[in-house]
Design brief:
about 25% strand; disordered N terminus; alpha/beta; elongated; about 30% helix; seven-stranded mixed β-sheet
């Protein structure tokens, strides 16, 4: 008896199953087609304003009622609204053949400085385009510019100024071109650029040179780290590949017959730490107290940069970037008051833990903490550090008071800070 063939083992397909499979595949293809069509139609539907949808609903209802009731007036209303909607849709026809550039003259300004930018729109198409409208979000507001009809290759430029009356990080852009009908039923928007940030830095004043906060190495705490270039000479050693040839000691090399290089003890610059309270409880009702405290601490930080000190900046909520002056001012610009976070005393404990070699520590608070609370903050800071507590009170007489372990400055005006800083060192 011969073995059964392999074809005889295959199951016979059921006609109903094949039909259901084809129907299922057809349903999936139809669903994909509908989804693709919906993705194409959704942006177009978004061009219509709520007023346009209301007008369309009223037009349909009026035409249906006119057909049922035979009212000519309702029919005229329905066809009239339909004609208005059709005419408005004509403004959406065509594309936006634009090349748009957004530029700010400066990305960093100080409060009160003039911030200017410009928008350049060029028609990159091969035919004239209709007038349109350019919109530019600036912070929480929005500016609008009328864009005239542009011939092929023609360019149009608009300049704008940004108010800088307060410290802020202002998002400028993105630039959008808007085309719509005069009634405002439809609106087609195309975005062209990315947003750019404008930093409005706090006001600062230039302080006098400070000799307080001596380098710890000069106070008897020497560094154990060795370096190839510094001030304090340590010893000579043999030359190694990669050493700077300017460090070669030629006289010793001639005497020993081997190249010898100088080795130095690494010195450390004195470090300034600024600590700012962001807690509303530390400030009075005057919102300018917080701004004045930020300006005072920024002034101390910039003076430390000029004196080539190391800088660290913390708040009761975060550690700020202080690698460069611009980074520090950018961080101070973005600081905001808010509930939560540490108390300033807890922040001072963190400063004592993280920056034990700090030579000068400047605290920024408002009018609420009294002398007792300020002394409690200073008591947890590193011994030997000069502690300055700036209590911002706009309008109050500026006064300097020496307390055990710190100097307290009641600052009424930023212009008084250089004089108060000089008196604190006497």
């Amino acid at each position: 008896m011969s073995a059964p063939s392999s074809t005889s083992r295959r199951p016979t397909p059921v006609a109903g199953t094949t039909t259901l499979g084809r129907l299922f595949r057809g349903t999936r293809a139809t669903r994909s087609t509908l989804q693709a069509g919906l993705r194409q139609v959704t942006p177009v539907l978004g061009w219509a304003s709520p007023t346009a949808w209301v007008a369309l609903a009223v037009a349909v209802a009026a035409l249906v009622a006119a057909h049922q009731l035979g009212w000519v007036e309702l029919a005229a209303l329905g066809w009239g609204l339909g004609a208005v909607l059709l005419a408005a849709s004509a403004f959406m026809i065509g594309r936006h053949p634009y090349e748009v550039r957004l530029r700010l003259r400066e990305h960093r300004v100080t409060v009160g400085d003039r911030a200017v930018g410009g928008i350049t729109v060029r028609n990159v198409g091969d035919r004239r385009v209709l007038p349109a409208r350019i919109e530019l979000p600036v912070g929480a507001g929005r500016a609008g510019f009328a864009l005239p009809s542009l011939a092929a290759g023609q360019e149009h430029e608009d300049l704008f100024a940004i108010p800088t009356s307060r410290r802020a990080v202002i998002s400028v852009g993105p630039v959008s071109s808007v085309r719509g009908d005069p009634v405002g039923l439809v609106r087609r928007t195309v975005t062209w650029t990315k947003p750019q940030d404008l930093y409005v830095h706090p006001r600062t004043v230039r302080l006098t040179s400070s000799h307080s906060g001596l380098v710890h190495d000069l106070e008897g705490r020497e560094s154990q780290d060795l370096t190839a270039s510094d001030l304090t000479f340590h010893a000579l050693r043999e030359y190694a590949p990669g050493d700077d040839r300017r460090s070669i000691h030629w006289r010793s090399s001639a005497r020993t017959g081997t190249l010898m290089v100088r080795q130095f003890v690494e010195t450390r610059r004195s470090q300034l730490v600024i600590a700012l309270s962001c807690r509303p409880e530390d400030y009075g009702k005057d919102a300018e107290e917080f701004e004045l405290a930020i300006s005072a601490l920024g002034s101390y930080a910039l003076q430390a940069v000029r004196e080539q000190r190391d800088i660290a900046a913390v708040t009761t909520r975060e550690t700020l970037r202080a690698s460069t002056p611009d980074a520090l001012l950018d961080s101070l610009t973005a600081v905001e008051q808010g509930a939560g976070g540490q108390t300033l005393t807890e922040t001072c404990r963190a400063v004592a833990r993280d920056y034990p070699r700090a030579a000068i520590i400047v605290l920024g608070v408002g009018s609420e903490p009294g002398p007792r609370e300020v002394r409690a903050m200073a008591s947890v800071l590193p011994l030997g550090a000069q502690v300055i507590a700036v209590r911002a009170q706009p309008g109050a007489p500026t006064a300097v008071r020496r307390l055990p372990g710190l100097t307290s400055i009641v600052l009424g005006d930023l212009a008084d800070l250089p004089r108060a800083q000089h008196r604190s060192e006497l």
